[in-house]
Write a structure and sequence with these properties.
Blueprint lengths: L5 H6 L1 H11 L7 H9 L14 H7 L11 H11 L3 H4 L13 H9 L15 H16 L14 H8 L2
Length: about 170
C-alpha cells in the first residue's frame, strides 16, 4: 500500500477516516476515530454523507437488529457504549445537535431507523427494521398525506401578489 503524506491526511480528515476504514479493522479504531466518523452524521439530513461500508457497519451498528427501530434510548445506549461509555460522552451533553460536533447524536442518526419523525438515516442493515419502516410508511399513507405545505400546490395570497406584479 502506498504511503500518504501526513500533510495530506491533516488537510483531509475524511480521507484519513476512509483510509483507516480500508486499511484496518474497525474494532481497532480509537474512540476519537469513531467520534470523527459520527461527527459527519451530526448534521441536517440533507448534508449527511452516504453510509459507511458494510465492513465498517459490522463494528458501528448493533448486533441486535431490533435496536435501530426500537426506542431511541436503546439506540443512544448502543452509541454511548461504542463511543467509550458514559464518562467519555459526557462532553457531548451540552453540545447542540446538527452542528457536526456531537458524536452521540451523529451515531443515533446513523444507527436509527426513525426516518419519518426524527430524520434518522437508517444506515445499519436490519431486516427487522426494514419491515418496521415499511409498516410505518404504510401507516403514514393509510392516514392520508401529512401535508404541512398546503399552499405548495395551491396558490396562497403571497403567490397571487407575486403574479400580479408581472
Amino acid at each position: 500500500m502506498a504511503m500518504v503524506p501526513n500533510a495530506i491526511l491533516k488537510q483531509s480528515p475524511i480521507l484519513s477516516i476512509l483510509l483507516l476504514a480500508v486499511t484496518m479493522p474497525a474494532s481497532s479504531l480509537t474512540t476519537s476515530q469513531l467520534e470523527d466518523i459520527f461527527y459527519q452524521y451530526d448534521v441536517p439530513e440533507e448534508d449527511a454523507p452516504d453510509c459507511q461500508s458494510e465492513s465498517m457497519d459490522v463494528h458501528l451498528c448493533p448486533s441486535d437488529e431490533k435496536i435501530p427501530c426500537g426506542p431511541v434510548e436503546h439506540i443512544k445506549d448502543h452509541c454511548i457504549s461504542i463511543l467509550g461509555g458514559p464518562e467519555n460522552v459526557k462532553k457531548f451533553e451540552s453540545v447542540s445537535p446538527d452542528k457536526g460536533k456531537n458524536a452521540v447524536e451523529g451515531c443515533v442518526k446513523y444507527v436509527g431507523f426513525h426516518v419519518f419523525d426524527l430524520d434518522h438515516l437508517a444506515c445499519c442493515e436490519s431486516d427487522i427494521c426494514e419491515d418496521w419502516m415499511a409498516e410505518q410508511f404504510e401507516n403514514l399513507q393509510a392516514g392520508g398525506p401529512e401535508d404541512d405545505d398546503d399552499d405548495y400546490y395551491g396558490q396562497d395570497d403571497d403567490d397571487a401578489d407575486f403574479h400580479d406584479e408581472f
